[in-house]
Design goal:
This protein has 267 residues and is of the alpha/beta class. The chain contains twelve helices and seven strands.
Length: 267
Amino acid sequence: MNKIIVVANQKGGVAKTSTVRNLSYSLAELDKKVLTVDLDPQSNLTIGFGITPKKAKHTTGTIITRMLTEEELPENSEYIQTVGKVDILPASRALTVAEVNMLITPGSNKYLAKLLEPLREVYDYIIIDTNPSLGALTINALTACDEVIIPIDPELFAITGLNDLMDSIGKVKANLNPNIKIGGILFVKSITRTNLYKTARQNIADYFPHIPIYKSVIPLTVKVGEANSNALAVAEYEHSNPAAFAYTELAKEVAENGKNETENKIA
């Protein structure tokens, strides 16, 4: 099933970028065709793929700016780069300028959807990395996507930001994208044996019983950060690391969910 997924949380420091980097790698290892989209002006995902933002000829910022000014877009091959088995549309600081211009342009909430829709037939999964704020960029991402993965760090007051995010998703669903749904909550940076993790997971289940929680849990380990610093997925950096296994299991869950949805539609 061709699917556009946004990894989002209005709280920073919850491994959104690491999740996109590693989930995309693991899905590609399952022989899925994957495109990642860096929609954060900080460009951490771009850097995590070993791409220098300043050296990228075209980025999400320059492409969206062209759309705003109604200029002709370059060919896909000119702005989509390939790193290993994963394709990426990189970001740069130009995205900050693009976002400002989007804020003053009426009806600019669907620019990303317009850009990505023709790419659905090329990719099994398009995965979008977002910044923590609910600005024009995140609204564009939520408008373009089929579902949202919400990473949560149990140490960062998990429930606090989730209410705000759910409210934002609800507004997007009501006004811009009626088909958006929650793929699931993903616990990251977790030590599952601790009371902190167990309490956070139970609180989420109690307060948000309608939201799925992924079985896969990403463990707390410095190896994810070390892998990011070396522009690698954690499975490339240390294949035997528990986080590598966890992201593989997450990819299987995501793929299985997509398979079940397709089968249900056929039935």
